[in-house]
Queue: 3 jobs
Job 1
Amino acid sequence: MSQTLRQIVLFIAVGCAAALTHWLTAISGVAVWQMPPLLANVVGWLVAFVVSFAGHYRLTFRNQANSLSLACRRFFIVSSIGFAINELSYAYLLQTTTIAYDTLLAIILLTIAVLTFLLSRWWAFRNRAPAR
């Protein structure tokens, strides 16, 4: 299996684990702790970030040479951008299109996943340039 294909498979597996963590945390925040849904969604994303970063740092992009701190900062930026685009585009498109909410969310999630993979591979977890 090529390194790129392996990374894609691991990225999907880690992403699914993080998405489930996000969803369970957000639902629990509303149902158990009586949080407003938008706040619970933010909490869910923050908890899922830990799962996502750990999985990508240790599995998906384990051959990268960046320090834990640098990779975490960069991945947090990537994840934050993805979350913001997701929320803003979903809210906007729900109001302005007739696309079913579940189909729309699937399209947005897939688009954000591709963007996140590319930014993670080529920036957040990019190997350092060799020292001269």
Job 2
Amino acid sequence: MKMRYFETKKGRIELIPMIDVMFFLLVFFMILTLRMIPDQGLSLALPQSSTAKVLPRPQIVVSLNADGLVSVQGQRVSLRTLQALLKAGPGKRRPDVTIAAAKAVPFQDFVAIMDAARKAGVASVGIATHHS
């Protein structure tokens, strides 16, 4: 009687599923990192409010300095440029905007920013304050 010996196969590591997992992790951490990058803005002395509440993260933050200088994400802009920027907005939807104005800003300057946002068709406008 002849004895048969069974061949044993060596295990091997499949590379394609491992590459898929690595790319998934890479994309996941890239998206997570992009959400953690803060917007640039000015250091402003914001007004106090006892009824302030946390709003969802806006797509655009407009900073209004006490000298009347308007900036968006660290770049100074004019009111006309601001309106065009808000009208273009990120994506097809009109952007959500938060206005951060210093305490000493004249109310007329604040209203001018609100008018520019309204003319641009902004979806919603928030006002940045310090919660007291």
Job 3
Amino acid sequence: MPIVPDTKNWTWVIERSCDECGFDASAFAPQQVAGMIRANAAAWPAVLARRDAKVRPDDSTWSPLEYGAHVRDVFRIFHTRLGLMLELDNPLYPNWDQDETAVSDRYNEQDPALVSREIVEDAEALALRLESVPADGWSRTGTRGDGAEFTIASFATYLAHDPIHHLWDVRG
């Protein structure tokens, strides 16, 4: 299952390197996230074309397809939230139960080829929106339903870890 930090202490994701995947978001500028998203998305079609795309390594670990569908949805959720942050003053956006979504949307029953295309398309839409952030917009804020507060800069840096970590999860 995805590694989810304590929502009260989410900042570890942007302050230090991940003990598992090694990604260090603190060394990553928010303006670099758009390029990272595109590069990450480009790696998923090969992962989802593998014969084991629907195979869970064990009962508590998602299959590559489930991770891919999750990454696609991360791109979609962050695209929407970024739009709110750009358009509204300190919007409040609801939490997202990623585990419930995986079950209700039947991630492991989805078409790997379609999920591959959607990852690339949704990553591009998010990358373009990130590239549209004006120089003075990186300090705009938004608040998640659990009270976690982000600037667009911290939001982008927080985002960077998730798809990289999940590509590492599937060894893509």
